[in-house]
Design brief:
The complex is a heterodimer. By secondary structure, chain A is mainly α. Helices cover 79% and strands 0% of the residues of chain A. Helices cover 25% and strands 34% of the residues of chain B. The chains are: A mainly alpha, B alpha+beta.
Chain lengths: 267, 370
């Protein structure tokens, strides 16, 4: 089995990469080559300039990316702010209703996000937040997955460390920030990747609450751009798709070691 | 050096009485062990002393201060945990310095790592502590890079640096391997004397408790069964339960009855006279294996098996239909199958009444035959 492991993994990776490779090929060919399915011709500099130029000028692409960065980093910031103390309390503090709350977290893990879209939409609309940054951020700041991961992580921290800190005179906040958070970095890194990917690529929710290009996040913006402006300009469309994937790739490269450590630690 | 007084402390977990009416006075500078099997409440008592757990009733006084209701960090108590509980992401230096930083620097200066002159003092104290514990070369390492014995010293350093009035240790040797345990045991004892700090040490290992303590509180079933010097606990256990718990080998016990004349009888043998109020009562006689010597007019023992331990040898035999173990000096060769006479030394004879409490008897009177 181990002899075949690497070829199989390479094959799987190639299958995953194929659509991206396809997009890269399309984004570097002129329109007639794309329509004629002659993708294995030499890429032309003219076509690259035309497609990528069109991608960044025809729509406010960098505006979309800016929105995406703002939305994703705000979501992640508040998620961490909530999940760390919540996970700690669920793992290590004794208080009435703890098991019920934990049951709620598990339930939250099982409910698919689209199911909540309707009630969330009603709430956002009633609060008058349609087409705003809070509408994109607020529904996601409490992450069941994040609380779940942090609770599981904190449960593995020996009670004695927490008790030693109490005897040494650290406050609960200092204990959390100075002692426990540094230990949780791999888990936080893994969660950050999961959260960033999910919210960067989110299409469904923005399509419900965003109505203007000024507020559009990258995938939703590209979709707007496809239907309104580009029509069948596949080269430019693929160029735009590749550009909006870049920040995510950068984030992954930055966090990948922690991501892998975190996933290994989750076992 | 500060005195610790525990008065009538009780604690229940649900329906279980974990601690029942515990009273204990620890003298200034004394090293006291809480010794007992797991589940006897010794760790709970230690946690109540530290303030990590609350007692239901009772009082704890450290010096002149009542500690009930005082937060753990305000109790002037330091603790060494079983698994050392060092902060994994901090260096040895930071681990040892933390209790001082918390006490002497405001929260914001700590968070922002501003210290000034106070921080320089702390550094000097940490360096001095490291010198005392001989861990200077390790100061910039993290706990993961230390051996068990080194972690133990760091944990001790972190506890001692605050110069608390009371040091609590929860089985601090149990996570070390056997050889290191002996060495560390001696070091702890030496350091405790050097600092003169009143110490309460929890262990389930009687050899450890015997070797290290000024006095031992034997805890059984949530009570203090006996509180005395190690030698006294061994020589004069207060109850049958303590006698059975202390000692490396099995206790030889014989259920019998005191006759109306006040003589202790064992089968056809009358041993010595005991307190008159025991006349006619059921009692338990007990001897440790080393209580016997070969003698012409002792109890008849059928030799089943002999075991040589070098310096001495163990005789596994049968006396009055019951198994008996005796530790003898290697002497004339005995053989399995023969019957020898073993005389228990009167002063090593333990006598317990029907309730298992130790009863005085007259050790001067020798074994007599009827």
């Amino acid at each position: 089995m181990s002899r075949w492991r690497h070829p199989l993994l390479i094959l799987a990776a190639a299958l995953m990469l194929l659509p991206i490779l396809w997009a890269a090929l399309v984004s570097t060919r002129p329109q007639d080559a794309i329509i004629g399915a002659r993708l294995l011709t030499m890429p032309s500099l003219d076509a690259i300039a035309a497609n990528y130029g069109r991608a960044v000028t025809a729509s406010p692409l960098f505006g979309f990316i800016g929105n995406g960065i703002a939305v994703c980093s705000l979501i992640l910031f508040f998620q961490v702010l909530i999940m760390v103390p919540a996970g700690y309390a669920l793992a290590k503090l004794r208080f009435p209703g703890r098991e019920t709350l934990w049951g709620g977290v598990l339930l939250g893990l099982m409910v698919p996000a689209p199911v909540l879209a309707m009630p969330l939409f009603v709430m956002v609309a009633m609060l008058g937040l349609m087409d705003s940054l809070p509408a994109l951020v607020l529904p996601w700041v409490v992450s069941s997955l994040g609380i779940f991961l942090m609770r599981q992580f904190f449960r593995r921290v020996p009670d004695e460390i927490i008790e030693a800190a109490r005897l040494d005179g650290l406050s609960e906040l200092e204990l959390l920030v100075r002692v426990l958070l540094p230990l949780a970095r791999p888990t936080l890194g893994a969660f950050a990747i999961i959260s960033l990917v999910a919210h960067w690529n989110e299409l469904y929710w923005p399509s419900i609450v965003v109505t203007s290009a000024e507020r559009a996040t990258p995938p939703f913006g590209v979709m707007l751009f496809q239907t309104q402006e580009a029509g069948t300009e596949y080269g430019a469309l693929m160029a735009g798709a590749l550009i909006i994937a870049l920040p995510l790739v950068a984030a992954f490269l930055l966090l990948q070691r922690r991501f892998i450590e975190g996933l290994v630690a989750m076992k | 050096m500060t005195q610790l007084s525990i008065g009538q402390l009780s604690k229940r977990f649900g329906a279980v009485d974990v601690l029942r009416d515990i009273s204990l006075d620890v003298r200034p500078g004394e090293f006291v062990s809480l010794l007992g099997p797991s589940g006897c409440g010794k760790s709970t008592l230690l946690r109540i002393l530290s303030g990590l757990e609350q007692a239901d009733t009772g009082s704890i006084r450290l010096g002149v201060r009542e500690l009930t209701g005082v937060a753990p960090s305000e109790r002037d108590i330091a603790m060494v945990f079983q698994n050392f509980a060092l902060y994994p992401q901090m260096t040895v230096r930071e681990n040892i310095a933390l209790p001082l930083r918390v006490r002497r620097l405001s929260r914001w200066r700590r968070m922002l790592r501003l210290g000034g002159a106070v921080a320089a003092d702390i550094d000097a104290e940490v360096a001095a502590m490291a010198r005392t514990l001989e861990i200077e070369p390790l100061l910039d390492r993290k706990p993961a890079a230390l051996s068990g014995g080194q972690r133990q010293r760091v944990a001790l350093g972190r506890a001692l640096i605050r110069q608390s009035s009371l040091l609590l240790m929860d089985e601090p040797l149990s996570s070390l391997d056997a050889r290191l345990r002996l060495q560390t045991r001696d070091e702890i004892s030496q350091i405790q004397r050097q600092f003169g700090i009143t110490t309460v040490f929890v262990t389930h290992d009687q050899a450890e408790a015997m070797a290290i303590s000024d006095r031992i509180a034997v805890m059984l079933g949530g009570r203090i069964a006996q509180f005395a010097a190690p030698e006294e606990i061994y020589r004069a256990p207060a109850s049958l339960a303590v006698a059975e718990f202390i000692g490396t080998t099995r206790l030889n016990r014989f259920e019998t009855r005191v006759d109306q004349g006040g003589f202790l009888r064992l089968g056809p043998h009358a041993l010595h006279r005991v307190a008159p109020e025991l006349a006619g009562q059921d009692v338990t006689l007990a001897w440790r294996p080393e209580a016997f010597r070969l003698s012409g007019d002792g109890l008849p023992v059928l030799v089943r098996r002999l075991e040589s331990h070098g310096a001495d040898s163990f005789l596994h035999g049968e006396c009055l239909g019951q198994p008996l173990v005796a530790r003898l000096e290697p002497g004339p060769g005995l053989t399995a199958g023969e019957t020898v006479r073993l005389e228990p030394r009167p002063e090593a004879t333990l006598l317990f009444d029907a309730a298992g409490q130790s009863r005085p008897h007259a050790p001067a009177m020798a074994l007599a035959h009827v």
